[in-house]
């Protein structure tokens, strides 16, 4: 941790990714008796912590006796290079334990574009990349997630794969390893035992022969008894999806032929309304979340969706919590649902149309009627939504130029509708290349090449005429790599390793993806992309032939045939069973519509904590409070906006009725002192809020209890402001601050006392006129007089430290780190070794100077 603080955190973007300072994080030393499990998401923290699968497995593992579970993520390249330079191994966020000290590493593979990240994790952890090179002291490394439909491209890097739902498998795997520990089983013996667990695949040196034993993809029988995430740990850094997600249903019966998840997660299993309501309430009480997402592959198909919304919507709204559904159907059921989702953020509504023409939508099995789409978009615009997002794919099987033209025509129709309805309405269109995925009816189809994809994108760009349309195109070169990795065989492992060794990192990130590295890697590995993008005969053994999916090959084949005939696919939830093989039809029905679906709704509703700014006799009496707080330790690496959001979450968690703003998107009404720069600690930060509490002692106790697990945050004082006072603008009124800067030994000259050294530096600066030069926002040079600061500067005579008052607003404002660099002529690297603490903030009124609590 010491080296991390000294050599890495001050120099990277978003250091909060690497500090694990989450609210409710369990920090306990790793017990040598426990089986130590690290769950790793092979992408950045903010992506990984948005993933429900990771949270579900974390919730499951946390409840297992004899297991300690921690988490880790992939660093951004700036942090990766510093970790390498200073030989700091990749570690877990909870206890900062190097990953190689764990017994088991579990990685989740959600996208082929994270494959090189797997190698980054292993290499940064100091673990041999290939399973064959690992020894007795190395952890076992396993993978789960949807990409394991085809384990072959990563088979040499993993000791074993877990196919299907992870919940039950995780219990069996950890149980087996705990037992084998007692007999001090060798690595080989452990892998042999794990290979006997259903759904576990231990890759041998050669891929399994066709016709041999199959690995059956596992499914949990129902969601009801599976642990659900409880809202903690609460991330401080803004996530890619900063919501509390509750899985309401797993699986989808719509049958879209391109969709891997729709086939892989069959049959549909639901969580009861009562369990969902309880989980949502629990998450808000524990985490204070401001947005809840009811998650599934097709949430509008949840059998009791309207009842669910009817219960949750009013309760959440009165707590300032938004309710959202990520995946909506293009039909009238969505209209009814949207009608119930009153209030909330109405910025964008997303529809996956996928293909422009009815013919091609029939081929791919997408049941979207153009008139329904137009009706829905029109209703949405009229109801206050300002944007409709439309998703399309290019390069679908049997696509013609006419199909592409129809995308542009449809987009223009929606855009025209947006212009005809009063108000500003935009249409955002995303075009993604189609990638045939294993385990779908299109697994045998050829993938469209780069030039043709590019031509299709250009064609749409030229044909779309409307001004209120924004077109976004996914990079077709990424799709080529994704396609090779998705349907690759074991030789593709060599390609992944060659690309990684050449520098491929975080390929899913536009800023990082470098196609040239992959082109070179193809040469090194002696492979050609076309060999993997080609169509396959159904008689040809596929690399993943040994994986027994929930749906049968015969079903996939029949769907491929129907696609070729242009026949749409029926939803088996609405019509007869299509014999996909996932279950017996009666069992499917019972799983989807269990007798206990609604159950008894727990009565303990959330307290009403949101109080809108409504004037009149009905409005509650509000009191204005000012809080002084400290921000210390690792929390100094959290940015201002993230801290503001965390405090909002904490206030919601406290159960206090706090004032919100009015309007479509109400926010908690908070006022903060000026933002504190990253890496500066403080015991003099302030915020104001209004709430209905009147008893200062009781409110302080409540706040202290609520903020207790917010490591690094401390409430220093709480004061009621006089009722007649106008809400003071802390951000504008605090004009100067007192800092204490403790100088690191490395910045001091060894031959002189610090008193002489600092005194000499001050005298020298004064003699030079005490002018500090800074650049304003337009890049112009500004001279700032630091004479008053230097004249008031105090040097500590007990330890090497100075205290100085600096302006934080106006012409003479200067940051404490910049002041230090100027005074001692330090570069950023050396100044960052010194500890800067803000001790007080001051408000000036004429000649008077006082703290914000004194005014
Ligand atoms: S609706 Fe279609 S695309 Fe969406 S999850 Fe279901 S099968 Fe997949
Ligand atoms: S077995 Fe029949 S009812 Fe069940 S998911 Fe498959 S097609 Fe649908």
UniProtKB/TrEMBL annotation:
Matches recorded under CDD domains: Radical_SAM (cd01335)
GO MF annotation terms: catalytic activity; iron-sulfur cluster binding
Annotated signal sequence range: none
Gene3D superfamilies for the chain: tm_1862 like domain
Top-level division of the source organism's lineage: Bacteria
Ranges for domain Radical SAM core: 238-472
Stored SUPFAM superfamilies: Radical SAM enzymes (SSF102114)
SMART domains: Elp3 (SM00729)
Pfam families, per the entry: DUF2344, Radical_SAM, Radical_SAM_N2
PANTHER family: RADICAL SAM DOMAIN PROTEIN, SLL1084 PROTEIN
Protein name: Radical SAM core domain-containing protein
Species: Candidatus Glassbacteria bacterium RIFCSPLOWO2_12_FULL_58_11
């Amino acid at each position: 941790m010491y080296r991390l603080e000294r050599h890495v955190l001050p120099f990277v973007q978003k250091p909060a990714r690497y500090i694990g300072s989450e609210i409710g994080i369990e920090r306990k030393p790793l017990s040598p008796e426990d089986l130590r499990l690290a769950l790793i998401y092979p992408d950045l923290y903010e992506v990984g912590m948005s993933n429900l699968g990771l949270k579900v497995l974390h919730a499951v593992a946390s409840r297992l006796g004899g297991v300690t579970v921690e988490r880790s993520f992939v660093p951004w390249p700036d942090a990766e290079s510093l970790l390498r330079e200073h030989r700091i191994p990749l570690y877990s966020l909870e206890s900062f334990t190097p990953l190689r000290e764990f017994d088991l590493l579990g990685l989740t593979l959600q996208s082929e574009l994270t494959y090189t990240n797997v190698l980054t994790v292993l290499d940064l952890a100091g673990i041999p990349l290939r399973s064959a090179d690992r020894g007795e002291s190395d952890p076992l490394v396993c993978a789960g997630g949807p990409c394991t439909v085809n384990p072959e491209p990563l088979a040499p890097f993993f000791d074993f794969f877990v196919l299907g739902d992870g919940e039950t498998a995780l219990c069996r795997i950890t149980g087996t390893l705990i037992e084998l520990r007692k007999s001090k089983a060798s690595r080989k013996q452990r892998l042999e035992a794990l290979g006997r667990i259903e759904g576990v695949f231990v890759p041998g040196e050669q891929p399994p022969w066709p016709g041999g034993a199959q690995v059956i993809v596992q499914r949990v029988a129902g969601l009801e008894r599976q642990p659900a995430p409880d809202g903690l740990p609460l991330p401080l850094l803004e996530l890619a999806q900063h919501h509390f997600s509750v899985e309401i249903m797993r699986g989808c019966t719509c049958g879209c032929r391109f969709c891997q998840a729709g086939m892989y997660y069959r049959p549909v299993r639901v969580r009861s309304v009562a369990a969902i309501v309880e989980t949502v309430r629990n998450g808000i009480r524990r985490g204070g979340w401001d947005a809840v997402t009811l998650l599934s592959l097709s949430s509008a198909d949840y059998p009791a969706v309207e009842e669910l919304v009817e219960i949750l919507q009013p309760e959440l709204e009165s707590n300032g919590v938004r309710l959202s559904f990520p995946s909506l159907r293009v039909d009238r059921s969505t209209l009814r649902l949207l009608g119930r989702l009153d209030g909330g953020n109405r910025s964008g509504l997303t529809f996956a149309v996928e293909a422009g023409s009815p013919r091609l939508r029939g081929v791919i099995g997408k049941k979207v009627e153009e008139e329904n789409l137009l009706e829905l978009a029109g209703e949405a615009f009229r109801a206050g939504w300002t944007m409709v997002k439309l998703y399309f794919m290019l390069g679908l099987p049997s696509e013609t130029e006419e199909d592409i033209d129809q995308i542009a025509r449809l987009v223009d129709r929606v855009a025209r509708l947006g212009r005809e309805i009063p108000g500003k309405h935009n249409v955002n269109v995303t075009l993604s290349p189609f990638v045939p995925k294993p385990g779908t009816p299109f697994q045998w189809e050829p993938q469209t090449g780069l030039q043709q994809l590019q031509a299709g994108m250009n064609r749409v760009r030229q044909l779309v005429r409307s001004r209120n349309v924004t077109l976004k195109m996914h990079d077709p070169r990424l799709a080529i790599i994704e396609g090779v990795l998705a349907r690759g065989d074991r030789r593709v492992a060599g390609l992944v390793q060659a690309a990684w060794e050449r520098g491929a990192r975080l390929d899913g990130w536009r800023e990082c993806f470098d196609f040239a590295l992959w082109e070179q890697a193809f040469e090194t590995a002696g492979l050609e992309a076309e060999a993997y993008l080609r169509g396959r005969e159904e008689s040809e053994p596929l690399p993943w032939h040994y994986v027994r999916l929930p749906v049968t090959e015969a079903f996939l084949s029949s769907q491929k045939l129907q696609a070729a005939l242009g026949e749409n696919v029926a939803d088996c939830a609405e019509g007869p069973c299509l014999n996909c093989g996932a279950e017996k039809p009666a069992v499917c029905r019972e799983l989807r519509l269990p007798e206990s679906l609604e159950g008894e709704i727990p009565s303990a509703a959330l307290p009403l904590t949101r109080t809108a700014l409504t004037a009149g006799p009905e409005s509650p009496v509000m009191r204005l409070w000012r809080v002084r707080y400290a921000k210390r330790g690792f929390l100094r690496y959290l940015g201002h906006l993230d801290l503001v959001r965390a405090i909002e979450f904490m206030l919601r968690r406290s159960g206090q009725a706090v004032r919100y703003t009015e309007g479509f998107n109400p926010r908690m009404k908070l006022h903060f002192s000026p933002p504190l720069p990253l890496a500066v600690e403080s015991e003099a930060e302030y915020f104001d809020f209004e709430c209905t509490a009147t008893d200062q002692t009781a409110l302080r106790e409540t706040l202290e209890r609520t903020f207790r697990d917010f490591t690094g945050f401390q409430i220093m004082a709480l004061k009621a402001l006089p009722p007649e006072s106008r809400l003071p603008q802390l951000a504008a009124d605090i004009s100067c601050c007192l800092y204490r800067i403790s100088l690191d030994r490395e910045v001091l000259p060894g031959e002189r006392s610090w008193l002489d050294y600092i005194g000499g530096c001050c005298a020298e600066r004064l003699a030079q006129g005490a002018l500090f030069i800074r650049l304003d926002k337009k890049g112009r040079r500004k001279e700032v007089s630091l004479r008053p600061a230097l004249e008031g500067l105090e040097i500590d005579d007990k330890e090497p430290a100075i205290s100085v008052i600096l302006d934080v607003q106006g012409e003479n404002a200067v940051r404490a780190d910049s002041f230090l660099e100027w005074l001692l002529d330090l570069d950023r690297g050396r100044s960052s070794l010194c500890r800067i603490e803000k001790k007080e903030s001051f408000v000036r009124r004429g000649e008077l100077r006082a703290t914000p609590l004194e005014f």
